[in-house]
Specification:
heterodimer; B: mainly alpha; 8 helices; 73% helix; globular
Chain lengths: 377, 232
């Protein structure tokens, strides 16, 4: 079975690892370009662009829609971090968007589960495994968003940690990574100036270039890391199957997601396993929660490129939100069963009436956020 | 368990499944040897039965574990090795079936032709030794994926299968059975059939080295239907 020679495999692995490091650098350049582009735009333009998301529910809806669009909460939260760093978006406005990104990212594995729609039993298990993630995220938002709006519960911990790490809000901190990416961002700015763009046009082009770089770099990082660590992921998942779920499964979900920089990859791997009946819903659930926390690493990485305490606070909010959600909905035994039972009930409904599954995906991930945003902006 | 992610393990993925399947083949041979020992020697059937049951449990557990691992492999690595995965799924079933045949042989041990005076004893003993050797060869060939030695092995398997068929036919056509124990012909015929099934499974396992997954178990029936395939 093992046909490839070891030395050539090793060389390919080293080359791919080096490529991933280059892609991470490119990703940081993208986030910094985004920040620089927004800064180039005038204050009036910034206010016009972002005044519509001051309503937290509208922000939540934008977070869901944006993430569904790019199919990656890592990308959308990194963009949010860039916007906060530029000063165009406040921490208060960014937090609901980050929570929305958490919900939006679950669409990928729900779509993957629809691939099993022909086989009732497989589909029931796959859909339940996919939507347990949705239930957890929606319940976390339902509990923590009101608490955040009333008492700043989620961001409080993030502000404390951020303050300890880089000082108080409002001042820039000296990030070595920011210095490393300064030169290429400057070249991009010069490039657009050379082509005759200035003011808002130059800013818009910088933002678009930054967005394109972030999305491309993240997609390539995920693809390459998936290849690089596929054997390790396989071994880890086998270990979860052998020993069951719990905290260890949660940690494995976290580690795998940090490595591939995408919770969608981790959770989507679970769907065929659940569909085949190899992985139970109860054992898949903690892996999903670990993935939720693991995916926050990307926004933290993005915050290093922009060197703004507020941006770091928002990135940390993504982490504290998910950790708090786990304490509320997984550590407490009574609450643990609610997402499990909810997803099983939804899966039963979807199996009885297949059109419900499609209606759920379209309604919950697209129509509802669109309507919410249109009404509340 | 989390450390499993960080540990470097050269035998992962399908290599791991193959090495466990090879170990299963060893277990299957062990079961076969024990069952024929109980059948053809005065060994204590109850002691042997206990060992066979434990070995069979181990084979079944390993088969289930490896099936899960194959599903994980496809989920994580994608479908690039789907042919190997399907082949391994069939292979695991064949190995498990060798264990099942060993249990069938054990069931005969209580009423089988143990006595050296039985007219079938010598042939059963001779075939037993050749099949046991064949199971060992199966393991070695599969482990090494030795496509050079596989055709010769398959030829030997065909000869052994024919011997089993001939032995059964001889029993069925026998007119003079007055000098044998009444249970001898029936149990001997069954035993020859079980031997034949073990040989077939071993042959099919080795065949998997040289034929694609769709032709597994049917290679001899379809060898003329494909252009350019190596003769098997």
């Amino acid at each position: 079975m093992n046909t490839a020679s070891a030395p050539s495999n090793r060389f390919a692995g080293i080359a791919r690892s080096a490529f991933v490091v280059a892609l991470i650098y490119l990703f940081l350049v993208g986030v910094s370009s985004l920040e620089a582009g927004i800064k180039i735009m005038g204050q009036d333009t910034q206010e016009r662009l972002f005044s519509s998301v001051t309503n937290p529910i509208a922000g939540l809806c934008i977070g869901i829609l944006g993430t569904v669009l790019v199919q990656s909460s890592s990308a959308s939260t990194s963009i949010i971090v860039g916007l906060v760093a530029s000063g165009a978006l406040s921490v208060d406005a960014a937090v609901p968007m980050v929570m929305g990104a958490n919900i939006g990212t679950t669409v990928t594995n729900t779509l993957v589960s629809l691939g099993h729609v022909r086989q009732s039993n497989e589909f029931r298990r796959a859909f339940a495994a996919a939507t347990v993630h949705d239930f957890f995220n929606v319940m976390s938002v339902a509990i923590l968003l009101p608490l955040e709006l009333l008492f700043g519960t989620v961001s409080y911990a993030a502000i404390e940690i951020s303050g300890k790490l880089v000082g108080t809000s409002g001042t820039d901190w000296k990030s070595p990574i920011k210095a490393w990416v300064k030169a290429p961002v400057g070249w991009l700015k010069d490039f657009w100036s050379y082509l005759g763009a200035d003011g808002n046009i130059q800013g818009t082009l910088m933002v678009l270039t930054g967005l394109a770089i972030v999305l491309l770099a993240l997609a390539l990082i995920t693809k390459n890391m998936r290849s690089l660590i596929a054997d390790r992921v396989e071994r880890s998942v086998n270990a979860v199957l052998g020993k069951g779920g719990g905290a260890v499964a949660l940690l494995l979900g976290l580690v795998i997601t940090v490595a591939v920089q995408s919770s969608s990859i981790t959770t989507s791997i679970l769907i065929p396993l659940s569909a085949a009946g190899v992985l139970s819903l109860r054992n898949a659930y903690p892996v999903t929660l670990g993935a939720n926390v693991g995916t926050t690493i990307t926004a933290l990485l993005a915050a290093l490129a922009v060197a703004s305490p507020d941006a770091l606070t928002v990135a940390l909010t993504h982490t504290t939100f998910n950790v708090m959600g786990i304490f509320l909905l997984y550590v407490i035994p009574l609450a643990r069963d609610v997402p499990l039972k909810g997803s099983e009930a939804l899966a039963d409904l979807a199996v009885t009436q297949r059109s419900w599954a499609l209606a759920y995906v379209l309604g919950f991930f697209i129509v509802l956020p669109l309507v919410g945003f249109a009404l509340l902006r | 368990m989390v450390l499993a992610f960080f540990r470097k393990d050269p035998s992962s993925g399908l290599d791991h499944v193959v090495s466990k399947a090879v170990a299963m083949l060893g277990d299957a041979r062990h079961s076969f040897d024990l069952a024929t020992l109980a059948l053809l020697t005065p060994a204590d059937s109850e002691t042997v039965a206990q060992d066979i049951r434990e070995t069979d449990d181990r084979i079944n557990r390993t088969e289930q574990e490896l099936r899960s691992q194959l599903v994980v492999h496809i989920s994580v690595q994608g479908s690039t090795e789907i042919g190997s995965v399907l082949g391994l799924t069939l292979l695991l079933k064949k190995i498990e079936r060798v264990g099942d045949q060993a249990k069938n042989i054990l069931d005969l041990a209580t009423c089988g032709p143990k006595s050296k005076g039985s007219p079938y004893f010598d042939q059963l003993l001779d075939l037993k030794q050749r099949i046991s050797k064949m199971l060992q060869d199966t393991r070695e060939l599969y482990e090494a994926q030795d496509s050079d030695r596989a055709p010769a092995f398959i030829e030997v398997a065909e000869v052994l299968k024919d011997e089993c068929d001939d032995a059964v036919e001889k029993i069925l056509r026998a007119h003079d059975i007055e000098n044998v124990e009444p249970s001898d012909p029936a149990s001997a015929a069954l035993c020859f059939r079980y031997y034949k099934r073990v040989i077939s499974h071993a042959r099919n396992i080795v065949t998997s080295i040289i034929v694609p997954v769709d032709r597994l178990d049917y290679f001899d029936e379809s060898k003329d239907t494909r252009d350019g395939d190596p003769p098997v």
